[in-house]
Amino acid sequence: MSFFALCLGRVLLALFFLITVLHEVMNWGEVEQVLLTALTNWMNVYYNYPVITSFLIELSSWASILLAVGVGLKMIGGIFLAFGWYPRLGAFALILCLLPSTFLLHDFWHLQGVQRQLHTFEFLKDMGLLGGLFIVLGAKSLIGKGSD
Prior knowledge:
There is one protein chain. This protein is an all-alpha fold and 148 residues long. It is 82% helix and 0% strand. It has one domain. It has 6 helices and no strands. Helix 4 (63-83) packs antiparallel against helix 5. The mean pLDDT is 92.
């Protein structure tokens, strides 16, 4: 039973990221605009801090590349995790992508009303996914090649 549970858990966790990759590739321009909007929102919040603002402006000029790196990490990490090929490495790749994007895109503490509620739930969902990925990262064996 534990073999089945571990395999199913790995696949379900990976499936979230692999479906996200499909969505992002099929809607590249729209997803890039969401990223640029999030960076602009952060610039508006920290406009009194020139170092942070200039960093965010620089990130904005790299939006396409950041998006491509994120999609690549999710695709590689999702495949590794789903098929049990170095699942800990896959989890690490997914954490590298999910951790910064969660804080960048779901900054509920800057929002009000319904938007705050929606982004709070999205933030908490991502924290749950990160929790699952950290469990994979810390597990000794996950019934896959290279898991030790």
